[in-house]
Amino acid sequence: MKVVTGLLDCVQGRSMNQEISISYRAVKSKIYKLIDALVEGEKSEAEVQESIRRWWKLVRPDDRKVAEKYLAMVLTKSNASLLAIRDGVHTFDGLRSFEGFEHAQEPDSRMGNRIPAA
């Protein structure tokens, strides 16, 4: 739930330049692209936050209430999915516990996970 609250807080600055209309599919696509960029190390947490702020400024003022609703829905479902995966891993024999998972919610100053694969 902290992820949902953090990203919703990021979108509160409102400005009007080019404006875009909103759909659930568009919000989901944007969020999943940002999550993927973070997971792949293409963007840092700060870069993801800046991307969502810039995107929010493009949302038409009349669509912001519905965009916020869609954003909360997508983030809630994404967070639930991650928790289900984490909890599902505990059911496999031989895998270590993810005890540190819940402690890793605070952003740190790293630049993604830009570590070369072995």
What do these coordinates show?
The structure is a single chain. By secondary structure, the protein is mainly alpha-helical. The chain has a domain at 21-90. The protein is built from four helices and no strands. It has helices spanning 2-10, 24-39, 45-58, 64-89. The longest helix has 26 residues, at 64-89. The chain is elongated. The model is unreliable at 12-17 and 103-118 (pLDDT under 50).
Sum up the overall morphology in one term: elongated
DSSP E strands, number: 0
Please write the string of helix (H) and strand (E) elements.
HHHH
Radius of gyration, in angstroms, nearest whole number: 16 Å
Helix percentage: 55-70%
Give the low-confidence spans: 12-17, 103-118
The termini sit apart by 33 Å
Topology:
Blueprint: H1 2-10, H2 24-39, H3 45-58, H4 64-89
Helix pairs in contact: 1-4, 2-3, 2-4
What would you say about this model in short?
By secondary structure, the chain is mainly α.
Core attributes:
118 residues, mainly alpha, 55% helix
